UniProtKB/TrEMBL annotation:
NCBIfam families documented for this protein: heptsyl_trn_II (TIGR02195)
Organism of origin: Massilia niabensis
Catalytic activity: an L-alpha-D-Hep-(1->5)-[alpha-Kdo-(2->4)]-alpha-Kdo-(2->6)-lipid A + ADP-L-glycero-beta-D-manno-heptose = an L-alpha-D-Hep-(1->3)-L-alpha-D-Hep-(1->5)-[alpha-Kdo-(2->4)]-alpha-Kdo-(2->6)-lipid A + ADP + H(+)
Protein name: lipopolysaccharide heptosyltransferase II
Enzyme Commission number(s): 2.4.99.24
Length: 341
């Protein structure tokens, strides 16, 4: 049967990465059916690195705004594209409105905000919550159906795009390239202290003076990255702060070039994992079992204190021990052998 599939993307970078296995399942079921993804502009570059995607459509809506008239108008544009089915990954009412207004007959998603009628193939969250990858991948099957293990997330970046991004950003060829991602959108509690990142940078450069360290993140992370460099001492000469200097597609390309990535639980961590880069993932207030890295070489570090995972944006006890006590030598013990390979 001719027609297309529409997937409405999550609003967070890491969640979008972890939804890719759903598209792999959908493409395996209907190899000839094009899959379009409707995504916020900030997340769209992730989907452009997903092989199963035919077209990435960027949402024209303001964040958190209902904009009912605008959604109706955009739904008429989608109606003309001839979708047979849709998968609504955000759990909000306003995103479930779009395929309903577009007249798409099969509308798959979780119950979310009481979306009866808007979603007509309805799945229900399980308790305790499933890890994110199988949570999204389950939408490919009928509700309550048994699901075999999902494939791990996968992004692909052409070599010429990697070379172009590195050339523009002044990243020379040769030498081990290590990326630090010291930021995290969720809140301060998820961030490994800059002084620990700085100490780790010193350990890297002591082992390999030819190595280079790039710091990645949004403009909001630039000050944090400067703190990391300040704490690195003599190693600062081998570090480059790219926070706020890259578009997401360039950051993805840089990560694809890296020998290793050290990151908090963040979107950049999950991008690195999906590119199968060696990763050292740092978990404090969040659960490493809920959204783990999937690289061939992946170390998910958590002190697993009695008070964690608290899943709070700020430490409710005021000490932030889950990250403060995860000192650089513990991380270096995992990273050092990766870089020595």
């Amino acid at each position: 049967m001719s027609g297309r599939t529409l997937v409405i993307s999550p609003n967070w970078i890491g969640d979008a990465v972890m939804a890719q296995p759903l598209l792999a399942r959908l493409k395996a079921r209907h190899p000839g059916r094009p899959i379009d993804v409707l995504a916020p502009p900030a997340v769209a570059p992730v989907w452009r690195a997903v092989l199963e995607v035919d077209t990435v459509l960027e949402t024209p809506f303001r964040h958190k705004a209902l904009q009912l008239r605008e959604r109706w108008k955009y739904a008429q544009v989608l109606r003309a594209r001839g979708y047979l089915d849709s998968y609504v990954l955000p759990n909000t009412l306003k995103y479930a409105l779009i395929p309903w207004l577009a007249g798409i007959r099969q509308r798959v998603g979780y119950k979310g905000e009481m979306r009866y009628g808007l979603v007509n193939v309805m799945h229900h969250d399980e308790q305790p919550p499933r890890p994110m990858v199988p949570f999204y991948a389950a939408l490919a099957n009928a509700p309550h159906a048994a699901l075999s293990p999902a494939p791990r997330p996968s992004l692909v970046v052409p070599g010429e795009r990697i070379e172009a991004a590195c050339a523009r950003l002044g990243i020379a060829a040769g030498g081990a390239l290590v990326a630090f991602a010291p930021g995290a959108e969720f809140g301060q509690a998820k961030r490994w202290p800059p002084r620990h990142f700085g100490a780790l940078a010193r350990a890297i450069l002591e082992q390999d003076g030819a190595a280079r360290i790039v710091l990645l993140g949004s403009p909001k992370d630039r000050a944090t990255c400067e703190e990391v460099i300040a704490h690195a001492g003599d190693a600062a000469s081998g570090m480059l702060n790219l926070a706020g200097r890259t578009q997401l597609d360039e950051a993805i390309a840089v990560i694809a070039r890296c020998a290793a990535v050290v990151a908090n639980d963040s979107g950049l961590l999950h991008i690195a994992s999906s590119l199968n880069r060696p990763v050292i993932a740092l978990y404090g207030p969040t659960d490493p079992d809920h959204a783990p890295p999937f690289s061939d070489i992946a170390h998910a570090l958590s002190l697993r204190l009695d008070c964690s995972p608290c899943r709070q944006r700020e430490c409710p006890l005021g000490h932030h021990n889950c990250m403060e006590q995860m000192e650089a030598p513990l991380v270096w013990r995992e990273l050092g052998p990766v870089l020595a390979r």
